[in-house]
Q: What sequence folds into this?
């Protein structure tokens, strides 16, 4: 008699726990920028299967099974929401010293002090805005005087931004495109949008969700399928804020239609160094580039000092214009 009472209770508990853990496994596995998400998700899914098998060995009345299912769904939703808050919206970098950087050729000695101050400005912006990656280049007197990448070009793999990392510059392409061939801008060009969004997220070619889950949670961690990220060709993975146009509220991968802002299904890319070369040669007015409705690129030119600054980021709604202006002020003050 005692066992017949305990078995339903035990089964109900196991079913509820299994549903909750399965939900956690799926969510963590699908969290696009959680380091190790695939492995963690796989472990959680295995635990859920084990609990389900144990529950199946116990006889459970219909009313108890329905109650367990309802309770499990509610708890699974709450668990997913809590996991979302912890995994996706947490700061990418705890403090500015943790933001990695990769510098190009050494800056001219006369700009050493300006470079150090500018580095602090960039790291502070990355921290304050919760930006995945930023790349900066500064030019003067016809040459690049400083180029450096900060943060990650891909959050999931933590592949670093370098001065050669290619960023989609969005609507800024209209100002630059005609100068690519005449100026020989080697790291500026046009790709098919699918090269920047290999999973065809949000488009007709996107995989069925269940297949995507198994690919991320099972096949890729086991080495049975190749990883999509980091993108080849030193391309930056692009993100858009999850809410309120604010990168501090978390991020998601951009959709193909976000990346193909320049029509004809193409993505126009460049590096800050190439943008500076373009500006030094053509002396344009300051240019901003938007992607998915938010800034990703800014280039400023100071006519009086001859300083040119280009800043790119791999998340929409980064305040690249303010950062570019601060860096320009820093270098222009040095030349006065």
A:
């Amino acid at each position: 008699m005692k066992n017949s009472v305990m078995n339903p209770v035990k089964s109900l508990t196991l079913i509820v726990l299994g549903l909750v853990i399965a939900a956690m496994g799926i969510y963590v596995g699908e969290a696009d920028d959680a380091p190790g998400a695939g492995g963690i998700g796989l472990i959680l899914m295995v635990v859920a299967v084990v609990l389900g098998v144990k529950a199946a060995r116990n006889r459970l009345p219909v009313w108890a099974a329905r109650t367990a299912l309802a309770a499990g769904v509610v708890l699974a939703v709450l668990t997913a929401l809590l996991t979302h808050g912890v995994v996706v919206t947490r700061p990418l970098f705890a403090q500015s010293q943790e933001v990695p950087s990769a510098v190009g050729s050494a800056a001219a000695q006369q700009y050493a002090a300006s470079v150090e101050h500018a580095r602090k400005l960039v790291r502070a912006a990355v921290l304050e805005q919760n930006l995945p990656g930023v790349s900066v280049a500064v030019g003067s007197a016809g040459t690049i005087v400083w180029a450096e990448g900060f943060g990650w070009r891909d959050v999931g793999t933590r592949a670093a931004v370098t001065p050669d990392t290619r960023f989609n510059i969005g609507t800024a392409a209209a100002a630059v495109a005609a100068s690519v061939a005449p100026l020989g801008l080697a790291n500026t060009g046009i790709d098919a949008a699918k090269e920047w969004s290999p999973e065809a997220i949000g488009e007709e070619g996107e995989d069925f969700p269940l297949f995507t889950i198994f690919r991320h949670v099972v096949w890729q961690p086991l080495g049975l399928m190749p990883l999509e990220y980091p993108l080849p060709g030193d391309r930056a993975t692009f993100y858009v804020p999850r809410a309120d146009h604010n990168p501090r509220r978390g991020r998601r991968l951009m959709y193909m239609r976000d990346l193909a802002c320049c029509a004809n299904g193409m993505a126009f890319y460049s590096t800050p160094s190439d943008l500076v070369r373009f500006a030094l040669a053509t002396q344009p007015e300051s240019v901003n580039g938007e992607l998915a409705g938010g800034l990703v690129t800014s280039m400023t030119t100071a006519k009086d000092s001859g300083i040119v600054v280009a800043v790119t980021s791999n998340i929409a709604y980064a305040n690249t214009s303010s950062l570019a202006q601060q860096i320009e002020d820093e270098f222009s003050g040095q030349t006065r």
In short: The chain is about 45% helix and 20% strand.
